[in-house]
Write a sequence for this structure.
């Protein structure tokens, strides 16, 4: 009887200590695919909702945007100019629990059609994006968007 009660107590402790949501690689890929589809559908509310409340969106050449509200503000501002967008996935997989997506972002932004190669590294916890790091050539992106910058004239 003592062994049974000890086993029940141990299971109770494990149940309390276990995370509420255990993300498998398949579940992480499902969240990543849901995010990709939300971008392709221009469903900006869905994009923002897929981030954790304290999530981070970090284009590696600029400061990260932290928190769902700040991410929503940034995406909302950017979305104003997006006429079309398609994240064309080249490779998608999970390595050591982290989602990697190699893609071509094909878009029309304020009348400028462009495409830019991007690698996204996405950490997903409890079914939400905790951190999304983006690696791309910022000058190439801005040029494809038709955005003038101060460093454009210096670089030419």
């Amino acid at each position: 009887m003592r062994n049974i009660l000890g086993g029940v107590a141990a299971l109770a402790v494990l149940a309390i200590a276990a995370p509420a949501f255990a993300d498998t690689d398949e579940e992480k890929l499902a969240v990543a695919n849901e995010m990709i589809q939300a971008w392709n559908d221009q469903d900006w509310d869905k994009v923002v909702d897929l981030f954790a409340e304290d999530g981070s969106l970090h284009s590696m050449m600029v400061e990260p945007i932290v928190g769902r509200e700040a991410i929503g503000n940034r995406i909302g501002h950017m979305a104003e100019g997006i006429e079309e967008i398609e994240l064309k996935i080249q490779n998608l997989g999970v390595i050591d629990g982290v989602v990697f997506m190699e893609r071509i972002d094909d878009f029309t932004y304020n009348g400028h059609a462009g495409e830019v190669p991007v690698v996204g590294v996405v950490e997903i916890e409890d079914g939400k994006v905790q951190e999304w790091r983006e690696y791309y050539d910022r000058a190439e992106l801005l040029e494809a968007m038709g955005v003038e910058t101060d460093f454009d004239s210096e670089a030419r």
Remarks:
- The helical segments are 2-17, 25-41, 44-49, 68-79, 138-145, 150-155.
